[in-house]
Design brief:
Length: about 130
């Protein structure tokens, strides 16, 4: 089995590009959904099948990553199997706060790397493509 779909939530177009490029290089069959803030991500999740993974930035306008996690926890009974924070924040308090959510499985520093995707796939119980 493989990762079939990933929702990337990040307000920076360059980071979105890097994520999509890295995901396609890791496994071109993965469906990549994109949101530029937490509100867009919630809209996607309300209208799409729950993805295998969500990659989430912390610092975004409109609704940041922590606000998204709060709403996501309240609104959705079924969560993506792996939610991974991908951020430029080096603050231990951000990592601790993110990992308090039972569905947040990983905390990575930008940029997204194939090793991050490999870890996510292992968390899903999938083998590397």
């Amino acid at each position: 089995m493989r990762i079939h779909s990933i929702l990337v939530v990040d307000d920076d177009e360059n980071d979105q590009f890097i994520c999509e490029y890295t995901i396609r290089k890791f496994d071109p069959s993965i469906r990549v959904l994109k949101a530029f803030d937490g509100t867009e991500a919630l809209d996607i999740l309300r209208n799409e099948e729950i993805p295998d993974a969500i990659i989430l930035d912390i610092n975004m306008p409109v609704m940041n990553g922590f606000e998204f996690l709060d709403r996501y926890a309240e609104e959705f009974e079924q969560h993506a199997p792996v939610v991974a924070m991908l951020t430029s924040s080096h603050l231990g308090k951000d990592r601790e706060r993110a990992m308090q959510y039972s569905f947040v499985k990983s905390y990575f520093e930008k940029p997204l790397q194939s090793d991050h995707l490999r870890i996510m796939a292992e968390l899903l119980g999938h083998k590397e493509p």
